[in-house]
Specification:
The chain is of the alpha/beta class. β11 and β12 form a beta hairpin. It is globular and about 60 Å long. The structure holds nicotinamide-adenine-dinucleotide. Nicotinamide-adenine-dinucleotide (NAD) binds next to α4. Its main location: cytoplasm. This is 3-isopropylmalate dehydrogenase.
Length: 361
């Protein structure tokens, strides 16, 4: 089969990690008889410098015509002080909206080889850390109108609107129930229904959708408690579904407790059309261009892309096994290196890519 992939390397370490991920993808293609055709597109600061905007229409069009989008990371200090419509983040919101990628999947999984990297106590880590956060991505307070900063009673007042329609909640709830069905069959819906009307609607609709998924156990948790429980005992969670704002914060917390930001992939998908696959970390300007970045989150994002976008389960699994084999060998980039642990070898981005390619054989 021939698949067309849009490559959006972006800024900072983006080009370095995407280069390694493409090497892995090409090799898997050769092994399994697939051809991947790439279109390189501009996004983020690189696009601002080249054409004056963070998500050019040409990029959006190319993404729409592809089977999947592989994104490195965008942004950096050079572009931080531009007006909001020219910020790299604004470009990301645009491409998610244009591709109707309303569901963001972030698995927070701890490879056992990296247990010592977790910020949690060893007895908590020993219980297991394998949570999937499903975050709604195109609604909520990030997109709600009205919003703005106005003058009121002689002072400035800033406001945004948190809003969800019934259909928006229903479609993300369905996606989350489907995901839970394929995992541990437990779904925790996180809201703030004790205070917010929008959350009460969220909860009511999730309960309605549950009627079609009686094999999945549904629970509800307020977001403040969920933040605490994620740190106290993440093993109690299988799949978490939540809105855009709460999900933004909780998915970062879930990722952070693994202690390895350079290891975690993500997928943003819609009901149909291409999805966006990317590491959860940013463009790491502090280490850009130094061959220090960990490419494994991007390589694992390729595995998610093969599984979710292209339905290539076996191909995805060999990548995940290769990453695990490389960790078994003790190879570590700086972000996951522990000098106190014997038997580890500190390697750079390219050498880590080499090792995964070798492990794939
Ligand atoms: P960051 O994730 O880029 O970096 C945080 C820390 O983690 C840094 O010390 C960095 O060196 C380290 N790190 C991140 N990824 C790593 C990797 N693969 N290997 C080794 N170390 C890694 O977050 P930040 O510093 O807050 O943001 C930097 C820029 O990235 C900002 O402009 C921000 O807006 C942007 N950003 C982009 C995305 C995205 O493209 N989706 C996401 C988050 C942040």
């Amino acid at each position: 089969m021939n698949y067309s992939i849009c490559l959006m390397p972006g800024d900072g370490i983006g080009p370095e990690i995407v280069t390694q991920a493409v090497r892995v993808l090409d090799l898997v293609g050769r092994k399994f008889g697939h051809t991947f055709t790439y279109t390189n597109v501009l996004a983020g600061g690189a696009a601002i410098d080249a054409v004056g905007e963070p998500m050019p229409d040409a990029t959006v069009q190319a993404c729409k015509e592809s089977d999947a989008v592989l994104l490195g990371a965008v942004g950096g200090p050079k572009w931080d002080n531009l007006p909001r419509h020219l910020r790299a983040e604004t470009g990301l919101l645009k491409i998610r909206k244009e591709l109707n990628c309303f569901a963001n999947f972030r698995p927070a999984t701890l490879f056992p080889q990296l247990a010592s990297a977790s910020y949690l106590r060893p007895d908590i880590v020993a219980k297991g850390l394998d949570v999937l956060v499903v975050r709604e991505l195109t609604g909520c307070v990030y997109f709600g109108q009205p919003k703005g900063i106005v003058e009121e009673n002689g002072e400035r007042m800033g406001f945004n609107t948190m809003r969800y329609t019934e259909s928006e909640v229903r479609r993300i709830a369905k996606v989350a129930f489907e995901a839970a069905r394929k995992r541990g069959k437990r779904l925790c819906s996180v809201d703030k229904a004790n205070v917010l009307d929008v959350s009460q609607l969220w909860r009511d609709v999730v309960i309605e959708v549950h009627k079609d998924y009686q094999d999945v156990e549904l629970s509800h948790m307020y977001v403040d408690n969920a933040a605490m429980q994620l740190v106290r005992d993440p093993s109690q969670f299988d799949v978490i579904v939540t809105g855009n704002l709460f999900g933004d914060i909780l998915s970062d917390a879930a990722a952070a407790i693994t202690g390895s930001i350079g290891m975690l992939p993500s997928a943003s998908v819609g009901e149909s059309g291409p999805g966006i696959y990317e590491p959860i970390h940013g463009s790491a300007p502090d280490i850009a261009g130094q061959d220090k970045a960990n490419p494994l989150a991007t390589i694992l994002s390729v595995a998610m892309m093969l599984r979710f976008a292209l339905g290539l389960e076996a191909e995805a699994a060999v990548i995940e096994q290769a990453v695990s084999a490389v960790l078994d060998k003790g190879l570590r980039t700086g972000d996951i290196y522990n000098s106190a642990q014997p038997g580890l070898t500190l390697v750079g981005c390219t050498a880590m890519g080499d090792a995964v390619v070798d492990a794939l054989g």
